[in-house]
Specification:
about 40% helix, Rossmann fold, DNA polymerase, domain 1, seven-stranded mixed beta sheet, alpha/beta, single chain
């Protein structure tokens, strides 16, 4: 059985429930600031999550006729303002980490497992989440912060994971990804990674056929037992531990 050497984490929906009460709210604040009538409600934003990347979601909404046409430069400015609003929401403490995230990160770090980030969120949004929700020391604890437009193709393309693996010099067979969405799972799969999926309200009904483990959350020792949605390895667990993830490495 290969030794687990690396955990690569997605951010939005995985480290924290950032989408509904974070990114969506920040988008609407930017739209209002720009004098646009468009507002993304919870249902609409759930539909837009099928498109990876914030600028890409605005472009998609324009192309389907729900927002007025604008050049890409204006889309980029609008998204930049959204990021500023999102950073403010994080700084206000309105976007906490998901259950079990800090516990598992600390367990892996103490065990000498390499930790990295592979996300399509912007570097500025990632930095804000690390600083205000994890703590500034985690900038040094993550060996790679692969984020934003650092690769040309976003998830479900494998590019962001392949970039992170190349930067770390760690093989895919020694690495497990942590994701929350179908696009994220497909990205990890295409990069040759095993994957643990922690679903949220937006992604619970998505297709995770072939994922190594799909759970309701990572969970805490003192909390309720996590819901096992897909468990092809037959793990018996109360909450997801580093030993559970190592067990996924077996064929």
């Amino acid at each position: 059985m290969p030794e687990l050497k690396c955990l690569l984490w997605d951010v939005d929906g995985t480290l924290a429930d950032t989408e509904r009460d974070g990114h969506r709210v920040a988008f609407n604040m930017a739209f209002e600031e720009a004098g646009l009538a468009r507002r993304w409600d919870v249902t609409t934003y759930g539909e837009l999550l099928s498109v990876t990347g914030g600028k890409e979601r605005i472009k998609f909404d324009i192309e389907r006729g729900d927002m007025p046409a604008m050049p890409y430069e204006e889309i980029a400015r609008l998204h930049a303002r959204k990021t500023i609003h999102y950073q403010a929401l994080i700084a206000e403490g309105r976007i906490p980490l998901r259950a079990g995230v800090r516990r598992l990160l600390e367990e892996a770090y103490a065990a000498g497992v390499t930790l990295g980030i592979s996300t399509t969120t912007t570097p500025a949004a990632l930095d804000a989440l690390i600083e205000h929700s994890l703590g500034a020391e985690w900038f040094d604890r993550f060996a790679v912060l692969a984020a934003g437009d650092i690769v040309p193709a976003k998830k479900p393309a494998p590019d962001i994971y392949l970039y992170a693996l190349a930067e770390l010099g760690i093989p895919a067979e020694a690495t497990v990804a942590l994701e929350d969405s179908g696009n994220g799972w497909r990205s990890a799969q295409a990069a040759g990674l095993r994957c643990v999926v922690t679903v949220n309200d937006y992604t619970r009904g998505q297709d995770f056929s072939g994922a190594d483990l799909v759970v309701s959350e990572l969970g805490e020792p003192e909390g309720e037992t996590v819901e096992l949605l897909k468990n092809p390895h037959g793990l018996q667990l109360h909450h997801v531990t580093l030993a559970d993830i190592q067990a996924l490495m077996a064929d």
